[in-house]
Amino acid sequence: MAGIATGRWVTALGLIAVLGLGIRLAYTFVHGDNLGELGIDAGYYHNGANLLADGKWFVSPVGLFDFYGVGQAASHPPAYQVVLGAVSALGMRSVLFHQFWSCVLGTGAVVLIGLTGRKIAGPRVGLIAAGIAAITPSFWVNDALLMSESLVLVVVALVLLLAYRYRHRPSVGAAAGLGVATGVSVLTRAELVLLVPLLVIPLLLLTDREDWRRGLRRLATSAVAALLVVSPWVAYTLHRFDEPVTISTGLGQTLLAANCPQTYFGPEIGYWAVDCVLSPKKPIHAVGDESVQEGAYRRRGIDYATSHAGRVPFVVYARVGRTFGFYAPIDQLRVDERDNRRELPVSIAGLATFYLLAGLSIAGFVLLRRRCVPVFPLVAPIAAVLIAVALTYGQTRFRVPADVSLALFAAVALDAVMDRLVRRPEPRTRSTSHRVRADARVRRRPAGRRRPRQAADDRRG
Known about the structure:
Helix content: over 70%
Largest sheet: none
Radius of gyration: 28 Å
Oligomer: single chain
Low-confidence stretches: 63-68, 429-438
Order of helices and strands: HHHHHHHHHHHHHHHHHHHHH
Strand content: under 5%
Number of helices: 21
């Protein structure tokens, strides 16, 4: 019976994945495959992937953007570019092929989220979570836009799945697997390195509280596994630039674009402004390679934030609010349409579903706490997003790692609602209720107590 149940569950998950793939492909056809309709980052990933296939490893897409220049490039971590490059190497080099491959990645995330939900709270929670990931706009919109968030969904879901598997069955192999997944996540988005202190270290140490030496050994195993994944890229990048570079050179540009007059004052507080990077005064982008430019950008951005320290708290509030929809939400959706080519109706639908999932997630969090299920692995991606956007700038797509956790929390809440509806007692008829009450009165009468008429007959006898 267990095998039959498992087979049915796998079939149901497969059907949900097919639904998710269909939605993603349909939106891709509607959105189109014109590179001019894609954002800056999308063009970087697409052209960089084709250059990889041509044997030109991680060089700037020549002539695409003014501030990237020509030469060695590490503006973004390499994982998503490598994934697209593998498709380009097979001859599928067009924007449309890259979009289709991103749709496949998004569908893989649906499956992993379903498996994670099942591991956390049971089969039905897994199917509900997969369904949420299949149909929610914030999960599929980035596939057609060629954003690295397609791969971010996969790696975050994989990290959570392996974290809960380790929680259920701790072992050296499980710790190593978690380390590998964490290393891949760092190579996908640099800020996901925050999962190490927020998730991996607490999980490995707290799971083996009875034997802290064993916990430390497994933590060391996980760290070595993560380093084995990350170190080839770090070693390759360290010798390519004038200044040392580990994961990427994007931090400097980000800090300067997020800490300037346009983002501290005016209508786009908490966002970023490319004009600040391309300022005609002291044009950094024209001097040195990317590592030299990154250092100059970073220093200028930090200097501006330091000199306007009194403004920083409100700017941080706006950054987080833009990401989580409580500061100028409609304005942020219009900015997403302008900069990332996200259609406004799709963004509005995504914001509405986000509000719904956020509300359900509170209930899901409480339910898991009552069931004594560890929730800090699910909280870790949300905390990582909060920290990252507070230090840089706010944007809707930066919320994607948190969306994975919200979908899982919400699935737990919806499962509880369905469970209550299914187990609700059926109403009884009047005759049945009357008979039940009469039987209850008979059962409650003391065994040694006689009726008054019977007592009188006994006395007369």
